[in-house]
């Protein structure tokens, strides 16, 4: 699908196509539909970023809270979205040893207690060791800075999902 076809979609079809570029937040696609026609998918991506940045802190926290834990119960129960499933598997989350799994679960729980939202990273860009290192390092961050850092990861995940949907050129 090219940008002209995207611009011609009803908001229902637009949300069908783009509803999960931000994990479990179809509101984002539904909101940016108002901004069509987009000159390019990069412009669309920019509108998504603007929408996310415009949210109040509670809204940003809400977006983050829609993200499933890495190697969490949803990966184990097979209830992840297709995108998350592929991303987490690529980062080696389905192949962790028992001790790595329990360390990750402990760090995730510690992170959630501290920040009130889950640790979010663009899993496709890291392997399991890097994920652990990032999580341990970010535990010490200040809350407002960590919220922005996590939202940056949501934007990276969104960009890769736009590429996967053949909408965003590989080298934007
Ligand atoms: N908590 C997370 O970071 N989750 C995820 N990151 C991804 O890239 N895919 C996920 O499901």
From TrEMBL:
This protein's pathway: Purine metabolism; urate degradation; (S)-allantoin from urate: step 3/3
Entry-linked InterPro entries: OHCU_decarboxylase, OHCU_decarboxylase-1, OHCU_decarboxylase_sf
Keywords from the named record: Decarboxylase, Lyase, Peroxisome, Purine metabolism
Predominant subcellular localization, coarse grouping: other
Any single GO BP term: purine nucleobase metabolic process
Domain of life where this protein originates: Eukaryota
GO molecular function: 2-oxo-4-hydroxy-4-carboxy-5-ureidoimidazoline decarboxylase activity
Catalysed reactions, as listed in the record: 5-hydroxy-2-oxo-4-ureido-2,5-dihydro-1H-imidazole-5-carboxylate + H(+) = (S)-allantoin + CO2
EC number: 4.1.1.97
Domain Oxo-4-hydroxy-4-carboxy-5-ureidoimidazoline decarboxylase: 7-162
GO cellular component: peroxisome
Subcellular location: Peroxisome
Similarity comment: Belongs to the OHCU decarboxylase family.
PANTHER family hit by this protein: 2-OXO-4-HYDROXY-4-CARBOXY-5-UREIDOIMIDAZOLINE DECARBOXYLASE-RELATED (PTHR43466:SF1)
Function: Catalyzes the stereoselective decarboxylation of 2-oxo-4-hydroxy-4-carboxy-5-ureidoimidazoline (OHCU) to (S)-allantoin.
Name of this chain's protein: 2-oxo-4-hydroxy-4-carboxy-5-ureidoimidazoline decarboxylase
Species of provenance: Denticeps clupeoides (denticle herring)
Species classification: Eukaryota, Metazoa, Chordata, Craniata, Vertebrata
């Amino acid at each position: 699908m090219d940008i002209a076809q995207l611009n011609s979609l009803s908001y229902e079809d637009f949300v069908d196509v783009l509803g999960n570029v931000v994990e479990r937040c179809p509101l984002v696609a539904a909101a940016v539909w108002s901004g069509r026609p987009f000159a390019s998918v990069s412009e669309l991506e920019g509108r998504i970023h603007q929408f996310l940045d415009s949210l109040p802190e509670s809204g940003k926290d809400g977006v983050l809270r829609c993200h499933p834990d890495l190697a969490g119960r949803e990966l184990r129960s097979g209830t992840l979205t297709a995108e998350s499933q592929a991303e987490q598997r690529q980062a080696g989350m389905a192949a962790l040893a028992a001790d790595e799994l329990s360390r990750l679960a402990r760090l995730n729980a510690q992170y959630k207690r501290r920040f009130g939202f889950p640790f979010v990273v663009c899993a496709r860009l890291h392997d399991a060791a890097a994920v652990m290192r990032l999580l341990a390092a970010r535990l010490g961050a200040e809350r407002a800075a960590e919220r922005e850092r996590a939202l940056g990861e949501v934007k990276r995940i969104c960009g890769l999902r736009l590429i996967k949907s053949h909408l965003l050129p590989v080298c934007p």
